[in-house]
Amino acid sequence: VNRSGVPDAQIVLSERELVLPYRSNKENSGLSLRLDWRVEGKAKGTNSYSNWHSPVWFDATKLLELGVEVVEEDSANYRRRSSRDKEVFIVLAVDSPAFAKMVAALESDLEEKQRKLQLDVENQDLRKQAKRATERLQEEQLSGSRLFAIDAGLNAEQLRQQYGDRSKYILTKGIINYRWNYSGKGNKEKELRGYVARLSNGNIHVAHQHRLQLETLTSGKITRDSGEKEPRFQVELAYGSRLEPWVVGIRAWSSL
After folding, report:
1. Fewer C-beta neighbours within 10 Å, C or N terminus of the chain?
2. CA-to-CA distance for 63 and 42, rounded, in angstroms?
3. Are 191 and 214 in contact (CB under 8 A)?
4. Angle at CA 184, nearest 5°, toward 178 and 190?
5. What is the C-alpha separation between 52 and 176, in angstroms, rounded?
6. Residue 211 CB neighbour total at 10 angstroms
7. In angstroms, rounded to a whole number, what is the distance separating the alpha carbons of residues 168 and 11?
8. Average pLDDT for residues 62-67, to the nearest whole number?
9. How far is the CA of 96 from the CAs of 10, 16, 38, 164, in angstroms?
10. Are 47 and 54 in contact (CB under 8 A)?
11. Greater confidence, 185 or 105?
């Protein structure tokens, strides 16, 4: 049923957005690729892309819109975190403005560190900082995931109307929750923030025939290798009527 009719989305992602497993089970005819997605956080500059998956758009108003019942931490009705999980629709975008802002922030950070180094060329700490900033920018440009969670909602049809490009926007299900962030000023000031805990369909099964293609493109090394820079392959994915993904095809990576 999921694959019948016109796909809700059909999109091409690369190894930048699809993480290979750390280990390969050779006895298994298939394997899974994990979607590597990110969010744009509230902080400015290069610190705004944390692993907490709390996007800048996920504030108290958004939690209310999603029908989340918020309970104060000191309340007798405060529940453990996992019991507050709620499944909603998540919008993922490839090559969104959030990714462009990330690259721009790293470029600005590098320019600042290079400027400081020019004023004190013998300073080894500044030299190391500039070198690391250069490496971070190169890593982002070559291998950083371009897939960002940009919105969430309760109505899939309304979200698809708003994000109509089915080759750029993925509509999938995900689990959200909330936390209280404290300012650090005596822990008296706090802010309510939502976050995307995980995607409901974040792992994508690769059937046997596609696994053979993947083995060819990766020279038989179907394992995640942090030493790899540019992606080696790209995958065409389709999302069906139930918003569940499957692999349409795999081919060699191309920057075009």
Report:
1. C
2. 16
3. no
4. 35
5. 12
6. 19
7. 6
8. 96
9. 16, 14, 11, 14
10. no
11. 105
Specify the pTM.
0.87
- Total residue count of the chain as it appears in this document: 256
- Dmax over CA atoms of the chain, in Å, equals 66
Q: Residue 45 burial (CB < 10 Å; 0-12/13-18/19+)?
A: middle
Give 5's pLDDT tier (boundaries 50, 70, 90): confident
Hey, what amino acid is at 24? S
Range among 4-8, 144-148, 250-254 with highest mean pLDDT value: 144-148
**Exposed / middle / buried, residue 127 (Cβ in 10 Å: 0-12, 13-18, 19+):** middle
Alpha-carbon distances, residue 204 vs 63, 105, 112, 170, 207 (angstroms):
28, 31, 40, 14, 10
Phi, psi of 13 (to 5 degrees): -120, 160
Helices 124-143, 97-119: axis angle to 10 degrees equals 160
Structure confidence at residue 15 (pLDDT): 93
CA 229 – CA 226 distance, rounded (Å): 8
Q: Please choose, from the candidates 17, 56, 247, the residue with its C-alpha nearest in 3D space to the C-alpha of residue 146.
A: 17
The two three-digit tokens of residue 99, written as one number: 């990714």
